[in-house]
Design a protein that fits this description.
This protein has helices at residues 17-32, 41-50, 78-87, 114-122, 196-199, 284-292, and strands spanning 7-12, 36-39, 58-59, 69-76, 95-99, 109-110, 127-131, 134-139, 145-151, 154-159, 166-172, 175-182, 184-188, 212-217, 227-229, 235-239, 247-251, 255-259, 264-269, 274-278. The chain is an alpha+beta fold and 329 residues long. Strand 11 (166-172) and strand 12 form a beta hairpin. The N and C termini lie far apart (60 Å).
Length: 329
């Protein structure tokens, strides 16, 4: 029996020489393995300018519908990975990030491991991890939905004018919590807790914790500290009528909608998670250390089983010498 055609979406930052070269390598490897590489229409146009031989590669939504995509390989940083999750949102394909940028917190592999990552995709040697996503709705004063979207990292209500403050009231589960003037409010998932939420002073949340973080930005209030609520709760931010100006909603820094006075942004857990393909079982702690280059010198680690405590030394998750104890221990 003939195996159905395997369609692998390749998403690349096509304006950089290194990612163009990487895309060529990945597409060639997929073709050699009998899979069909697929490009988003915009990527196909840009890549074909640098590599005319890619002009015949199948295009997402034209030759290949999103529901037929098996997996998306992303060559770039976190911004490109977020774009890929948007491209496959209406399908069921997981996203595998290969970091070609700087931090690349969402990426699973680095550029030096690209060939091995493609090999494992072909062999279906990966696991799929579900990440909590947000459903975001903008409503008017009569509760009619004006705009609806989603977010993997965060939904942010921000002031539209640099010189004006945004006046908001924050609510949880339909009950008002506090009103204040501010630059905005960030509502984040655990996945996004190391992004805008982190920069704004919010907590880092382990991906295994299902929660929603709420962080006011430069608030003029006594009670405007970061909050963490369970995924069953809804959070709403209302732009008060007394606001002298307008606000704007941003989701993952990619989708936006204007917020006039009286607008209400309601954020809750989406029924559809985002799927990420994982190759490595390393602990999230190790990812934090590696990506943020956190100092861990002097770490002794859990004692070994041999001393009777029963606490084994933990695997370093691929960090190597960075996780070794100091020589004098």
């Amino acid at each position: 029996m003939t195996e159905p055609q395997r369609n692998i979406l390749v998403v690349a930052h096509a304006r950089r020489d290194d990612t163009v070269e990487a895309a060529d390598r990945v597409i060639t490897a997929l073709q050699d393995a009998g899979a069909r590489p697929v490009l988003a229409p915009d990527d196909a146009l840009e890549l074909a300018e640098a590599l005319p031989e890619l002009a015949g590669v199948a295009r997402l939504g034209i030759e290949v519908p999103v529901h037929d995509i098996e997996l998306a390989i992303v060559l770039g940083g976190d911004g490109t990975i977020l774009r890929a999750t948007e491209l496959v949102r209406d399908g069921s394909a997981p996203v595998l990030g290969i970091n070609m940028g700087h931090v690349g917190f969402l990426a699973e592999s680095e550029r030096d491991d690209m060939d091995d990552a493609v090999r494992r995709v072909i062999a279906r040697d990966y696991r799929v991890e579900e990440r909590l996503a947000l459903q975001v709705r903008v409503k008017d004063s009569s509760d009619a939905v004006l705009y609806e979207t989603w977010a993997l990292n965060e939904a942010t209500v921000e002031k539209a004018s640099r010189e004006r403050m945004l006046e908001v009231v924050m609510e949880v589960d339909g009950r008002p919590l506090s009103s204040f003037g501010c630059d905005g409010v960030v509502v984040s998932t655990p996945t996004g807790s190391t992004a805008y939420n982190f920069s704004a002073g919010g907590p880092v949340i382990w991906p295994t914790v299902e929660a929603i973080a709420v962080v006011p930005l430069s608030a003029h209030a006594l009670f405007a500290k970061p909050l963490v609520v369970g995924p069953e709760h809804s959070v709403a931010i209302e732009v008060l009528e007394r606001t002298n100006g307008t606000g704007i909603l941003w989701c993952d820094g990619r989708r936006s909608h204007d917020l006039p006075p009286g607008a209400r942004v309601v954020v809750r857990r989406s029924e559809r998670p985002v799927l990420l393909a994982r190759l490595h079982p390393a602990a999230f702690t190790d990812r934090l250390v590696r990506k943020f280059r956190l100092p861990i010198g002097g770490w002794r680690g859990p004692v070994t089983v041999g001393d009777g405590s029963g606490y084994p030394r933990q695997d370093d998750g691929g960090l190597g010498s960075e996780m070794e104890p100091e020589p004098d221990e």
